[in-house]
Amino acid sequence: MCKEFYEKWTKEFMDSWKELDWKRTLNTLSRNVEYYENPIDKPCSNFEEVTNLWNVISDNQKDISYKFEIISFNENTCIINWQMTRTLTKTNTKQEIDGIFQISLNLEGKCTFFKQWRFTK
Question: Model confidence over 80-108: pLDDT tens digits?
Fold first, then answer.
């Protein structure tokens, strides 16, 4: 996989998150994705668990902006550093997040492996 392939996926994933379009976000993922919301926990056991993580974003966050950089990649894996600011709607608290995604994509451009590390100020 080339860098542009990973950049296209990351832009779509992050744009859909920014626009709070969780169904569009889910469309970037394979239905059998190995999805780690937290790197020390077990992955989601099925796509319904992944859906449950995402279907609340439009209720709990707003005013999202982001940037990202591809740090490393090969034909199987990509490491992405991303930064985001967002406002939590219930408390109106602004957050700054710095994170890492480790992803693998299939030939259709769907994510088959997703693991993230994130640090929130």
Answer: 999 999 999 999 999 999 999 999 999 99
Residue holding tokens 């894996």?
Answer: 77
Report the C-alpha gap between 76 and 79 in whole angstroms.
11
What domain count does the chain have? 1
Quick check: pTM over 0.90?
yes
Cβ proximity of 78 and 72 under 8 Å: yes
Assign residue 98 the CATH number of its domain.
3.10.450.50
Helix or strand or coil: residue 40? Answer: coil
Whole-number Cα distances in Å, 57 to 35, 63, 87, 89, 107: 17, 12, 11, 10, 28
Instruction: State the residue range of the domain holding 113.
Output: 3-120
> Is-contact 79 102, C-beta < 8 A?
yes
